[in-house]
Write a structure and sequence with these properties.
This protein is an alpha+beta fold. It has three domains: 2-105 and 140-238, Aldehyde oxidase/xanthine dehydrogenase, molybdopterin binding domain (Aldehyde Oxidoreductase, domain 4); 246-317 and 376-452, Aldehyde oxidase/xanthine dehydrogenase, molybdopterin binding domain (Aldehyde Oxidoreductase, domain 4, 2-Layer Sandwich); 323-368 and 463-741, Aldehyde Oxidoreductase, domain 4 (2-Layer Sandwich), CATH 3.30.365. It is 29% helix and 23% strand. It is built from 18 helices and 29 strands. It has a seven-stranded mixed beta sheet with strand order 12-13-10-20-17-18-19. Helix 10 (396-407) packs parallel to helix 11 (432-442). The longest helix has 28 residues, at 148-175. It is globular.
């Protein structure tokens, strides 16, 4: 491995850069490296050896800045550092760290440029590297896009290695021995005579040193933790009910708050009368907030009740009041004026279709709520020149900035206490709850206020997954797919989401065509066009974003063409596939499912594939058409992430993604009537029932060149594989989700 150049203690930052065909770590990749935030207010005798390792006389704390929303982010980050630091996970504490540009996400640039993830050309790699610059300069400390592992894989291991070697240098100075004669084990430096020096005893001396200049990452063959089954660091707390979430926050003298916003999201608050609410027991104040009112009371239930008692005059929604208007807006967007992108246009699609169109179909995907299990919440204390915020968030620096503006303090005086998140699926990329909590806390300065959304308020005022429509036309010839033309219309997810953070989104929105234009298939005439529909209901990133609907659109239309050609669904996908790892996941899932093997009467088997977030994922679903409805019997999944760091968590994330994708495809949608979301709780947004959950078999491959994350890629193929299986069993094609509009599920 390449050695490190000179490192100043206050500017230690790791970013990857391609040099001479290998990977080096350019700590001065950009001329203004970010400072190590742990050095601010560092306790005496403590050592912040890198932004990720803090050692005091008592503890070893590993900084894990990517948010943990149940996916195991804290654990995998800790393991990456611990592997090189040479400590056990039972020896360390974890902390999300302060909001800081030092923790910007180095992996975001991968999906920010219009190059297929399979494109490793010089131009593609250079463009990705260039795109990292604005992400660094903005200090985008964001968790999302399955980037936690690719972001941390090199830099966290390097941070652990630098800290390890610096501690060895401290031991060498203290005991007058050559550093090369020292070794480490289980949080100790071992002297030549066998004496063990705990890292904590070396902290004071290490704090006076610059970080080690020359380090070598260990060969994976020497790994103690990574690549082996691990118990996540949060398992004991979650197994015993002691894990603390935002909803569990308690502070002396704390008040509680509820909120009531315009059901027509984004509509005005014309006026309100809080006379009845203010007279209710326990109510402290009723406060106007953006888009509605908030109630501060002595407990959450009383706040909920009082919020409902306020008489409110709401303005209308700034988007179509009913679903016909939303679908019509999409339908009218398939025009040259609305074209947003056409990154894939191979062969001569127009000439081929001029000879006649064999198939032409329309597909639809609805709005979907995030609906995490933990109620959305935030606790805020507005003090004299200082604000403290306790919440789960994927965007701590945006939260810090927005709270500072609302409270009239400097961002450095906003202290974010990032907490474990009880589910997100993209929801915690928004920070409305913190903004509202800050407004309420300003009304009672010096007193902490915990704002909790009711389930109904959360569902009604979520920023849901985008609504989307696709139109496919194609031709087949000689038993093969010859022409594939897919147009996709949806509003811009990125424009809607980033507008709430005051950030522009110039150029095409890649999410409109993600999971469709970038598929590794060689079809003679192949075109994918994205159409940007006008803004409708406000939307946000939902697990797998654009690919969540496009995986359904792209693969189901491909399946229809393959059927029209009379070809085998798996064999034709393999014939068309041009990407080695993608071919291998298709071959693997075929072997796992005994593709082509006999099925009982009434059974069907469907295959689907989607490459998203750089990960090829193939699924085969077997179903039975029973008297009680469609029963999903088995799901087989193969995915290639380059390297699997924790096999146990990998399998859990894949299975969870499949269940998430299937449940929403089967049973969920958000519809609008009178401008308001009609589905307000889990009774009308049920997901998958426990008795509907199939047996799921997972196989992870490690042949891809780059390491990737697995949180999102299992979602996009799930709906397509189920739709294709239903067709195989019943002959009925489902082109609109949720599928329960057309079939019953057992």
């Amino acid at each position: 491995m390449a050695g490190l150049k000179t490192i100043a203690r206050r500017t230690f930052l790791i970013g990857s850069a391609a040099i001479a065909g290998g990977v080096a770590f350019g700590l001065y990749k950009y001329q203004t490296p970010h400072a190590n935030p742990l050095l601010d207010n560092l306790p005496e005798g403590a050592a912040a050896l890198t932004p990720y390792v803090l050692i005091t006389g008592q503890d070893i704390t590993l900084i894990t800045p990517r948010a943990d929303k149940g996916q195991g982010a804290t654990s995998v980050q800790a393991a990456l550092i611990a592997e090189e630091l040479d400590v056990g996970l039972d020896q360390i504490k974890t902390d999300p760290g302060p909001p800081s540009p030092a923790y910007y996400n180095t992996a975001l640039s991968g999906d920010a440029v219009p190059f297929r993830s399979t494109d490793d050309s010089f131009l593609a790699e250079t463009t990705r590297a260039v795109m990292d610059a604005p992400i660094k300069f903005l200090g985008l400390q964001i968790t999302g896009g399955s980037t936690t592992v690719p972001d941390g894989y090199q830099k966290l291991r390097m941070a652990g290695a630098v800290a390890r070697e610096t501690l060895k240098t401290a031991a060498a100075r203290m005991h007058g021995v050559d550093r090369g004669l020292l070794r480490t084990e289980r949080g100790t430096v071992i002297l030549p005579d066998g004496t063990r020096l705990p890292y904590q005893t070396l902290a004071a001396t290490a704090a006076t040193l610059d970080p080690a200049r020359e380090v070598t990452l260990r060969d994976p063959a020497q790994w103690r933790l990574l690549g082996k089954p691990m118990q996540r660091v949060d398992i004991p707390a979650k197994s015993t009910g002691t894990q603390a979430y935002g909803i569990d926050q308690k502070h002396p003298g704390m008040l509680h708050a509820a909120i009531r916003l315009n059901p027509a999201q984004g509509g005005d608050l014309r006026g309100f009368d809080a006379t009845e609410a203010e007279a209710m027991r326990g109510v402290v104040k009723v406060v106007a907030v953006t888009g509605g009112i908030g109630v501060i009371a002595d407990n959450t239930w009383r706040a909920f009740q009082a919020a409902e008692a306020v008489s409110v005059d709401w303005g209308p929604a700034p988007y179509p009041a009913d679903m016909d208007g939303h679908w019509n807006a999409l339908s009218n967007s398939f025009t040259p004026e609305h074209q947003d992108s056409q990154f894939r246009d191979e062969g001569d699609v127009d000439a081929a279709l001029a000879q006649g169109t064999d198939l032409a179909f329309e597909y639809r995907a609805p709005y979907l709520a995030h609906a995490p299990l933990e109620p959305i919440n935030a606790t805020v204390l507005v003090g004299a020149g200082r604000v403290d915020v306790w919440t789960g968030t994927q965007i701590p620096r945006f939260v810090q900035k927005n709270v500072a503006q609302l409270a009239g303090v400097e961002p450095d005086n906003v202290h974010i206490h990032a907490l474990m998140i009880g589910g997100s699926f993209g929801h915690r990329l928004e920070d409305d709850v913190v903004r509202h909590a800050t407004t309420l806390a300003k009304a009672v300065p010096g007193t902490p206020v915990k704002l909790t959304y009711s389930r109904e308020e959360d569902m009604t005022h979520d920023y849901p997954r985008q609504i989307a429509m696709a139109r496919g036309r194609g031709r087949v010839s000689g038993g093969k797919v010859e022409t594939y033309d897919l147009g996709i219309a949806m509003p811009s997810v990125m424009a809607s989401q980033m507008s709430r953070q005051g950030l522009p989104t110039p150029g095409p929105d890649l999410q409109i065509v993600a999971g469709a234009w970038d598929q590794p298939f060689d079809i003679p005439n192949y075109r994918v066009t994205g159409y940007r529909a006008p803004e409708l209901a406000p939307i946000s990133s939902w697990r797998s974003v654009g690919a969540s609907s496009n995986g359904f659109f792209h693969d189901c239309f491909l399946d229809e063409l393959i059927h029209a050609a009379g070809a085998d669904p798996l064999a034709e996908r393999l014939r068309l596939c041009t990407h080695g790892p993608s071919r291998r996941v298709l071959e693997t899932v075929g072997e796992m499912s005994n593709w082509g093997g006999a099925l009982a009467p009434g059974q069907g088997r469907g295959v689907a594939f989607c490459l998203s977030f750089g990960v090829p994922c193939a699924q085969v679903i077997e179903i039975s058409d029973t008297d009680a409805g469609i029963r999903i019997d088995r799901v087989f999944v193969a995915a290639d992430v380059g390297r699997i760091l924790d096999p146990v968590n990998f399998e859990g994330l894949v299975k969870g993604g499949v269940i998430f994708g299937l449940g929403h495809a089967m049973n969920c949608e958000i519809t609008y009537a009178g401008g308001a979301a009609e589905q307000r709780n889990f009774d009308s947004f049920p997901g998958m029932r426990l008795y509907q959950c199939p047996e799921i078999e997972v196989r992870g491959l490690e042949t891809a060149r780059k390491i990737r994350g697995i949180g999102e890629p299992p979602v996009p193929p799930a709906a397509a594989a189920l739709g294709n299986a239903i067709f195989a069993a019943t002959g009925q094609r489902l082109r609109e989700m949720p599928f329960n509009k057309a079939v019953d599920f057992a």
